[in-house]
Amino acid sequence: MSGRDVVLGRIRAALADVPRGERPEDVPVERGYLRAHGNRGTAATVDLLAEHLADYRAVVHRCARAGLPELLARLLAERGSRTAVVPRGLPPEWLAASDVRLLPDRPGTTPHELDAVDSVVTGCAVAVAETGTVVLDAGPDQGRRRITLVPDHHICVVRVPEQVVDSVPQALERLDPARPLTWISGPSATSDIELDRVEGVHGPRTLEVVLAGE
């Protein structure tokens, strides 16, 4: 008996008591899933986001909105960045204190040109606390997907608390599925068959997330 025969036999046994004319849509399925695990307040939700981001090896910073320009300038300087690509809708005051050369997100920019850029600075669409995920949807302050996949260093600013949600179901309610969505949980990484972790394979090697509060 082949493996195929074994699998099909198990399926037939599982369906033995199902009426032949019954269709999947004829049987109601309870879908009362939890929208969030636990009952957290705003501060606890942001703390959970920071904890899970760090678990995924993202570097997490917190600051007030007023201190964002100085923090971003410091992070870029510590990285040694001389150039940074920025979406056209990024608030100009965010990088007003930095002396790096800012390169706009242009349609004609090639992957080779992006690979030569030191950093990219973006906003985000939403951040999920329970999974430590930031989601980009190519909005004005996030730009085209490729600018966050090619440069080796990505700084992502999350506006706290309005862009932070507890769970993936809550995040999906805020997102348009017709837009190009990028879900980021830590820096790009993969493992080979021996489980040796390699970062920066198909995205930034370093992800810094700034939680910017009021």
From TrEMBL:
InterPro entries: FTHF_cligase-like_sf (IPR024185), LUD_dom (IPR003741), NagB/RpiA_transferase-like (IPR037171). Residues 112-211 form the LUD domain. This is LUD domain-containing protein. It comes from Streptomyces lycii.
